[in-house]
Design goal:
3-stranded antiparallel beta sheet, globular, mainly alpha, 3 strands, WH-like_DNA-bd_sf, Arc Repressor Mutant, subunit A
């Protein structure tokens, strides 16, 4: 999902932002300086895989870390630290 996959780094950056606080897609696009449609694609991938959850709908949809990711946050951070070294 993150290492060795196309778009994995973008998904990692999204998650690192969501660790701090919930965002909507537009806020993430601005914070990461990434095209809105690209952010939406990666958010859909993360949600489909149970990594993030949402509240609301359409433009008001807010994205949060899922309970699964929260329970495994240390593992994610260890993986991210290794990936981030090679960036």
């Amino acid at each position: 999902m993150f290492a060795g996959t196309r778009g994995g780094h973008t998904r990692g950056f999204i998650l690192k932002h969501l660790i701090d606080k919930p965002y909507n897609a537009n806020q993430l696009a601005e914070a990461l300086n990434i095209d809105y449609k690209t952010i939406r694609h990666h958010l859909d991938v993360l949600a489909k895989n149970g990594i993030i959850t949402t509240k609301g709908n359409k433009y008001g949809k807010i994205y949060f870390l899922s309970q699964i990711l929260k329970a495994n946050l240390d593992d994610f951070n260890q993986i991210w630290d290794k990936i981030n070294i090679v960036l």
